[in-house]
Amino acid sequence: MQDRQEKISQVVVTAAQMRDIEQQIFAAGMPVVALMEKVAGLIARRVQDLIPPTPLKKRVGILVGPGHNGGDALVVARELYFRGYEIWIYSPFEKLKELTTQHLQYAQSLGIPCYSAIEELPDCDFLIDGLFGFGLERTITDAIATAINELNERNQPIFSIDLPSGIHTDTGEVLGTAIRATHTFCLGLWKLAFLQDQALDYFGKVELIDFDIPLADVQAVLGEVPKIKRITKVTALSTLPLPRPPVTHKYKEGHLLLVCGSRRYAGGAILTGLGARASGVGMLSIAVPESLKYLLVSHLPEALIIGCPETETGAISQLQLPEKTDLSSFSAIAIGPGLTKDSTPIVQAVMKSPEPLLLDADALNILAQLGTIPTLQQRQAATVLTPHTGEFQRLFPDIADVKADKIKAVQAAASQCGATILLKGARTAISNPQGAVWINPESTPALARGGSGDVLTGLLGGLLAQAATKQIPIEDIVATAAWWHSQAGILAAQERTELGVDAFTLTQYLMPVLKQI
Ligand SMILES: NC(=O)C1=CN([C@@H]2O[C@H](COP(=O)(O)OP(=O)(O)OC[C@H]3O[C@@H](n4cnc5c(N)ncnc54)[C@H](OP(=O)(O)O)[C@@H]3O)[C@@H](O)[C@H]2O)[C@@H](O)CC1
Ligand SMILES: Nc1ncnc2c1ncn2[C@@H]1O[C@H](COP(=O)(O)OP(=O)(O)O)[C@@H](O)[C@H]1O
Ligand SMILES: [K+]
C-alpha cells in the first residue's frame, strides 16, 4: 500500500499518457460514470474539509466546461448542494459531452440556478473551476477568455479541478488566458504542467486526489521505469551515504576537489566549501587563488586549501596541485563558483579528470566559449552541468526556447552533449544523456538569491565524491542534492520567512533537514 502510494507520487504524465491510462481502466470494465462519481466525490469532500458549509451558508459558483472536467464540476455542485451550500452554475457552452449534459440536467432539476452569461453569476464565497482539464489543446478565445479574465479579477478563492483552465497539461503554457487558482486538485496522477516553471503562478496550493488508479495500468502505459519522475523524500534519501559503515576512513568517504573563487568573488568559494562540508565528504580540498588561501582556511579549517598562481585580475591561472597529487587523486571535482572568465586554462585542465566532474557558473561560461559539445567529447568519465537558464542558453544556443518546455530542453541538451544536466529554476529538472529525467517538485522562491547555487555545487560535489565507489546512477545523486538543497531552503524560510534565507544561512539548514527525518 505504502509502496503504491510512493510509486504513484513519483509518476508524472502527459495528457496523452493520462488518456491512455484512463482507457486501460475503462477497457477493464470500470464504467466512466462510476469513475466520475468517485473522483468528484473525493473533490467534494476535500472542499468541505477546507471550507465547511456552516455556520454561514456558503455561496459557491461552479464553472462548467463542455467536457468531462465540466462533468466533474457538476457532480461536485450536486454534492455540495445536498450538504447545504448555496450553488450557482455558470455554463456558457451550447454543446456539452453526453455525461456532462446529463449532470447539468439533473442539477437544474434540483432547482440550482444556471447562467450562460458571466455577468449573471453573482459574487460567491468561492468558485469551482471545471471549464477545461487535460482535454484542452486549443487557445481559449472570445467570450470564454473574457469570462476567465473577469473571474480572475473578482479575487474570490478558486478551486481548479485537475488543472487551472487554460493551462496546457504538458508544457504549462497559458493557452490565451487561464484561471488563477488558489488551490488545484490534480486528479489521479501528477500532470507535467505542475512541474513547469511557466505555469506555477496559476496553481495556488496543489494537491493530488488519488483515486486508486491501479499501478499495473500506469506501468502498462509508462513502462516499469518511467522516463520522467518526481523526486520524493524516499528517492532522495535512498542515495545518501547513510548510515556510514562503522569501519571506514576519511579517504573511503570520498575526496572532493573544489576549484573556485577569485579576488573579485571570494565569497563564492566559501559558500561552495560550506555546501561541501554539509555533504559529509571524507576529505575536502579547495583550490583558490593564492591570495585567498588564508581567508578560506579561516572559514573551513578542516579543508586542505591549495593556493594557486593567479592572473593580474586575481583569478586562478594554473591549477598547482600539491606534490604526489594529480587529478586522479580526487573522487570527484567541482569547478566554477566565483572563478571569473579568466580561468579558461583551468577548465581545460580539469576536463582530463578520470573521475566525475561538475561544472557550474563561470566554468559553464568558459565551456560555452570553448564549444560545449567538442569540449565535452574529451571526457572519459561522467560530467554534470548545473546551469541556470541564462547559462543554459549560452551552452546550447541551438535548443529552442527553454522557457516553452524546460523538460524537453534539458533532455535535448543532455542527449547532445553526453553530460547529466541540472537545469535550475523554481522546478529544477535533471536529465541524463538517455533522457531519464528527475524533477524537483517542491522548492521556495527564498532561494532566488545570489550564492544559493554555489551552495548546491558544493553539496552535490560532496555527494558525487562519496558515491564514487558505489553503483548509483549519477542523475540519482544529482536529484538527491537538488532535493536536499531545496528542503533546506523550505525549512529556513519556514523559520525565518522567505526574506531570511541568504546563502550562508542556507548552508546552516542543510543538516537540520536530515535531522528532521
Ligand atoms: N482521466 C481520468 O481518469 C479522469 C478524467 N476526468 C475528468 O475529465 C477531464 C478530461 O475530460 P475531457 O477529455 O472531456 O476534456 P476537458 O478537459 O473537459 O475539455 C475538453 C473539451 O473542451 C473543448 N475545448 C478544447 N479547447 C477549447 C477551446 N479553446 N475553446 C472551447 N472549447 C474547447 C473540447 O472540444 P473539442 O476540442 O472537441 O471541440 C472538449 O469538449 C479531466 O481533466 C478530468 O477533470 C474525471 O472525470 C474522471 C477521471
Ligand atoms: N523561484 C525559485 N524557486 C525555487 N528555487 C529557486 C528559485 N529561483 C532560484 N532557485 C534556486 O536557487 C539556486 C540559484 O542558483 P544560481 O542561479 O546558480 O545562483 P548563484 O549563481 O547566485 O549561486 C538554484 O538552485 C535554483 O534552482
Ligand atoms: K479546470
UniProtKB/TrEMBL annotation:
AMP binds at residues 424-428, 453. Binds 1 potassium ion per subunit. It comes from the Bacteria. Residues 18-219 form the YjeF N-terminal domain. (6S)-NADPHX binds at residues 68-72, 133-139, 162, 338, 388, 454. InterPro entries: Carbohydrate_kinase_pred_CS, CARKD, Nnr, Ribokinase-like, YjeF_N_dom, YjeF_N_dom_sf. It holds the Pfam family Carb_kinase. Its EC number is 4.2.1.136, 5.1.99.6. It catalyses: (6S)-NADHX + ADP = AMP + phosphate + NADH + H(+); (6R)-NADPHX = (6S)-NADPHX; (6S)-NADPHX + ADP = AMP + phosphate + NADPH + H(+); (6R)-NADHX = (6S)-NADHX. Keywords: ATP-binding, Isomerase, Kinase, Lyase, Metal-binding, Multifunctional enzyme, NAD, NADP, Nucleotide-binding, Potassium, Transferase. Its cofactor is Mg(2+); K(+). Residues 233-517 form the YjeF C-terminal domain. One of its GO terms (biological process) is nicotinamide nucleotide metabolic process. Homotetramer. In the C-terminal section; belongs to the NnrD/CARKD family. Catalyzes the dehydration of the S-form of NAD(P)HX at the expense of ADP, which is converted to AMP. Together with NAD(P)HX epimerase, which catalyzes the epimerization of the S- and R-forms, the enzyme allows the repair of both epimers of NAD(P)HX, a damaged form of NAD(P)H that is a result of enzymatic or heat-dependent hydration. Bifunctional enzyme that catalyzes the epimerization of the S- and R-forms of NAD(P)HX and the dehydration of the S-form of NAD(P)HX at the expense of ADP, which is converted to AMP. This allows the repair of both epimers of NAD(P)HX, a damaged form of NAD(P)H that is a result of enzymatic or heat-dependent hydration. This is Bifunctional NAD(P)H-hydrate repair enzyme. It comes from Cylindrospermum stagnale PCC 7417. The lineage of its organism: Bacteria, Bacillati, Cyanobacteriota, Cyanophyceae, Nostocales. The gene is nnrE.
